[in-house]
Amino acid sequence: MKRLTLIAFCLSLCSFVTQAARDFSNVEIKTTKVAGNVYMLEGSGGNIGVLATDAGLVLVDDQFAPLAAKIEAAMKSIKDQPVKYVVNTHYHGDHTGANAHFGKSAPIFAHENVRKRVAANEKQTEADLPVVTYDSGVSIYLGGETIQLKHLPSGHTDGDSVVYFKNANVLHMGDLFFQGRFPYVDLKGGGSVKGYLANIKAIAKSFPDDVAIIPGHGALSDKKELQRFIDMIEFSVNKVEAALKEGASSEDILAYGIGEEYKDWGWNFITEERWLKTLISDLDK
């Protein structure tokens, strides 16, 4: 198990180094209207949510620092108003990387563990930190919209929040939803596979059936796609737990694979092998 944990840590470190050295000059920001005054921006990293009102804008996650100007331009093309509030759904750099830029003019909201984890990164400065933190959640009111921020227990990390635009009926799930792909569960950052599964099941029961969902990664989605994601994680947990109880080794489980139904859910960051290693590492306790 120590070997698998070390491999997972090295993969995370390698990914961070690669992202830090990336050239973002060719990245384009794609804008999609979701519902009401809510939009989704796609660029590089986690999906961004934007509420655009005459009273100002709300920005949910902000990708990487080199993309800040492009994100600003995309928002201005929607509505030429200042950013009033910024929300971080969790602490990872592809969701908080431009905090220092947007935090100059707007307060950043996040769960208290997000501030703690961003502050623990020696590469970050005071300007990168959320300045308004909460425990269970908080509501923001702007331009006729009610924005509900809700923290969930350890899942993707220990600081995850979902953001619900109540009047528009749009939910930004951060990295509690990787649409059509295996998720990253940050075990080093307080994440938990079973906690992740419990959280997304609770989310599915807590919001209207016709809610539009902005996933942390992947295409604009809905409850049907979220249920497919839940089914995949539940299948994966049950499969690996059963194999471990029968005495299967890590090597055996990796050799068996996830099965044909979900083979195509692997992607460049979380391959089938890495997803299985995460499950083994967290469940074999």
| Total beta-strand segments | 12
Given helix and strand content, the structural type is alpha/beta
**Within the largest sheet, what's the order of strands?**
1-2-3-4-5-6-7
Q: How large is the radius of gyration?
A: 19 Å
Tally the helices: 9
Report helical residue fraction: 25-40%
Q: What would you call the shape? A: globular
On the 0 to 100 scale, the average pLDDT is: 93
The proportion of residues in beta strands is 15-25%
Order of helices and strands: HEEEEHEHHEHEEEEEHEHHH
What does this structure look like?
The protein has 285 residues and is of the alpha/beta class. Helices cover 36% and strands 20% of the residues. The chain contains nine helices and twelve strands. The protein has helices at residues 2-20, 68-78, 93-96, 99-102, 112-119, 193-206, 223-245, 250-256, 272-283, and strands at residues 30-35, 38-42, 48-53, 56-60, 83-87, 108-111, 132-134, 137-142, 145-151, 161-165, 170-172, 212-214. The strands form two sheets. It has a seven-stranded mixed beta sheet with strand order 1-2-3-4-5-6-7. The chain has a five-stranded mixed beta sheet with strand order 8-9-10-11-12, with no helix packed on it. The longest helix has 23 residues, at 223-245. 44% of the residues are buried.
